[in-house]
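Hello,

Our lab assistant flagged a job as stuck in the queue for most of the afternoon. It eventually completed. Since we weren't sure the result was trustworthy after the delay, we are filing this so someone can double-check. Below is the sequence as submitted and the structure that was eventually returned. Let us know if re-running is recommended.
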Amino acid sequence: MGLEEVFSLEDFKDSIPFTALGARTCYSSGDLDYLLNDPRIVSKEERAKFLSKLGNYKHFSVFAHSFAYKDLSELPEDKLDRLLEDSLKDLPKYEKARILALKISATNFKSHYNPKYPTVIGISLRHYLERLLDIDEKIYFETFNKMAEYDIPIQPLGKEDNVTLIGMIKDYDGYAVFFIDNVSRTMTHQLVRHTALNYSQRSQRYVKEDENSLVIPPSVESSEIKIKSVTEEFLKIIDKILNEVLGADTKQEIKDEIRTRTDRLLRSFSDKESISLKELFTLNDQLSQIVYDFAVYRGKVKREDARFILPHGRKTTIVVSGTLYWIKDFITKRTDPHAQWEIRDTAIKMKKLLENQGIVF
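-- returned structure --
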């Protein structure tokens, strides 16, 4: 469809760093402050090397966080003629631009077309790179070297607790990128159902879960129910599995960290005959954690398989991006009173951040 003739890397330069942030989020347990000081995000040279590595692996999804619009009526008419069938060449230029925008939209998943702007098409850097790879692998890899020419810093536009607006385009139907931290995987399972948006989430395949913890729902936090005579059994099982983990053929530093974490848990529950629902949730989470440790360090099971034991309530981090049209759609649906508390809270914060930038709902 000739995307490489319509767009250039220059069109995406302001949002290229967002792709690196999305990628590092997948492979790091660090918070936003940590990530915004990571050379693979803030150094144009290191960022280009890192993104080139991802390009070599064909890890295209992170490049969807970089987006650009183009009014095709501004292209030279001879270029429009090259990109359309001969039977359309006698049409007025405006009509050619409209048809080409529709064609690009129809053949590129998650591109964006709105009849309100008939000659305008929006695509992500992912679309552009996939097209380059199709036509010339050499040009595709050279493009990553060119990314080092752009030294555009990430300057977040606002923060509401655990939700940060990383960047935004306001032209046409816009585009926004959010960094969301300390939410549960239960919530992100709901979030990713909004398939018009793009996501880069902390990976349980590549990121250690050793220091992660559970998100406790408010209803569990405030519950007054208690249960007796289970604490001792939990602690015995956890302690027994801990001893197995400490016998693993792995670094002593890792075993010391596991021992310290688990001993702290055992001490905090050792004298409790009855425990609250919140404490029961915590015990169950830590039981799953020590089983995970046992699988990884004693059983030499890959993290990607050991993670099956971990609760969906574990904390995670995710980068979310999309056109304002589809982000507004998400916010409208998830600020509804019937939405579950965690995703509703996230949507409310996203809405407030956009309103602070003058976006009207």
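-- support follow-up --
The delay was a queue issue, not a problem with the job. The result is valid. Strands lie at 67-71, 120-124, 158-160, 163-169, 175-184, 198-201, 226-228, 274-276, 315-322. The mean pLDDT is 95.
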